[in-house]
Design a protein that fits this description.
5 helices; disordered C terminus; mainly alpha; single chain
């Protein structure tokens, strides 16, 4: 496991995903304990996911989305403005022949 700190944008996305899980859980009147039962994880793990303390495995994300009757893409959507991808620099590849 890497000891490098995560970039701020990763932490921001984790918090947003956790907030979506928490909001949907509360809308459905589920406790962390009940969601944990539906997903086969303990309530402490639900808490850690909702508050972006830990990253769940993909299989857990899929089970959470299913338990909350939520499309995975809605759970993971990125509401942040688009940002340039790493390694791209404008129209670097377009050159004119002179």
């Amino acid at each position: 496991m890497s000891s490098d700190p995560l970039p701020d944008w990763v932490l921001t996305r984790r918090r947003a995903i956790g907030a979506r899980i928490r909001s949907r859980r509360l809308t459905q009147n589920l406790t962390q304990e009940r969601l944990g039962e539906l997903v086969a994880i303990d309530s402490k793990t639900v808490h850690r996911i909702e508050y972006a303390i830990s990253d769940p495995p993909l299989s857990t994300v899929l089970r959470i989305a299913h338990a909350l009757d939520l499309a995975v893409e809605d759970l993971l959507r990125d509401d942040a403005p688009a940002r340039p991808r790493r390694g791209t620099q404008g129209d670097r590849g377009s050159t004119s022949a002179t």
